[in-house]
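TICKET: design request
STATUS: open
ATTACHED STRUCTURE:
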């Protein structure tokens, strides 16, 4: 049985066998993916989920599809819920929170998905809230194959098990304190699917140039990535280097390709690109801290 969501905060007035009410401000891609995963996994019953969104259409759809509670305003959502998940785009976050910050109580648990807003910036926007948590998902959350990193504010240090239980239906949940770890997670897994799709496009284009129809080339590339990833999952105790060695024969075809990749310093190019992305993340965090 998962850790009950209600167990993490002993000071709460919520009874020991009741689920906390969880509210989403924003039901776009990530909000919808999370609501769907919570319900379909049985992690949180629909009647404990609330949602508010700027426009009505998505809310109606979620209510019809999943039977969640929808409310007309963000204030109503905050009043109705003990846990508030902020799932609006980073550029909308400050303008959304500023007028309603006083609605939050010190007992609220606030989970922000927004890239570029440090715990410190969130605390500045929500001075009364004690338990602040950041969660960084990635797009495979929509198919429940995400990597989600999280970090806890200083008054939320006891909430790790709750965060892991709540979000585990979406994929792998990894603690990563703010700073270098959270930044590398933001780039390596948050942005990661973007980098993987870049590589897949090079692969597909090359196969097309050699005569495969685009749809066939795409299928072959996707299956190659998927097959390699599933092999790595199946042989989880085998180092990736050893799985690679199983493809390579001395002076063979793969060996020639790998030698060229190493001569061309593909690793250095990727590391350089990741570091550039980390710099951009730090720059965005600095700008949201100043605003
Ligand atoms: N997608 C990803 O891969 C990913 C990865 C990591 C982190 N995240 C984070 O997840 C968060 C959500 O991203 P997303 O991709 O789900 O964005 P999205 O699809 O654009 O959804 C954002 C939702 O927020 C709603 N919204 C905007 N302002 C609002 C307000 N003042 N009050 C209530 N609702 C409001 C929007 O309503 P409308 O219907 O009116 O547009 C929209 O439905 C972001 O902070 C992002 O950084 C996303």
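STATUS: resolved
RESOLUTION: sequence designed for all positions
ATTACHED SEQUENCE:
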């Amino acid at each position: 049985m998962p850790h009950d969501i209600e167990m993490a905060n002993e000071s709460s007035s919520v009874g020991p066998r009741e689920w906390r009410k969880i509210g989403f401000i924003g039901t776009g891609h990530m909000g919808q993916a999370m609501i769907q995963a919570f319900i379909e996994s049985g992690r949180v019953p629909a009647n404990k989920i609330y949602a508010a969104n700027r426009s009505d259409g998505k809310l109606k759809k979620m209510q019809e599809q999943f039977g969640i509670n929808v409310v007309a305003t963000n204030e109503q959502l905050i009043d109705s819920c003990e846990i508030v998940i902020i799932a609006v785009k980073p550029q909308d976050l400050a303008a959304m929170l500023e007028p309603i910050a006083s609605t939050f109580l010190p007992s609220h648990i606030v989970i922000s998905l927004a890239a570029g807003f440090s715990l410190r910036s969130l605390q500045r926007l929500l001075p009364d809230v004690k338990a602040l948590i950041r969660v960084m998902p990635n797009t495979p959350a929509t198919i429940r194959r995400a990597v989600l990193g999280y970090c806890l504010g200083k008054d939320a240090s006891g909430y790790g098990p709750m965060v892991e239980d709540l979000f585990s239906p979406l994929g792998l949940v990894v603690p990563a304190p703010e700073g270098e770890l959270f930044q590398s997670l933001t780039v390596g897994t948050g942005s990661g699917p973007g980098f993987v799709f870049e590589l897949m496009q090079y692969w597909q284009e090359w196969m097309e140039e050699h005569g495969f129809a685009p749809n066939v080339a795409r299928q072959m590339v996707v299956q190659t990535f998927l097959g390699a990833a599933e092999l790595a999952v199946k042989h989880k105790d085998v180092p990736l280097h050893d799985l690679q060695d199983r493809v390579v024969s001395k002076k063979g075809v793969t060996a020639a390709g790998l030698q060229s990749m190493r001569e061309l310093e593909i690793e250095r190019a990727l590391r350089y690109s990741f570091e550039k992305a980390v710099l951009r993340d730090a720059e965005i965090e600095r700008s949201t801290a100043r605003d």
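CLOSING REMARK: Confidence is low (pLDDT under 50) at residues 6-17. DSSP finds twelve helices and eight strands in the chain.
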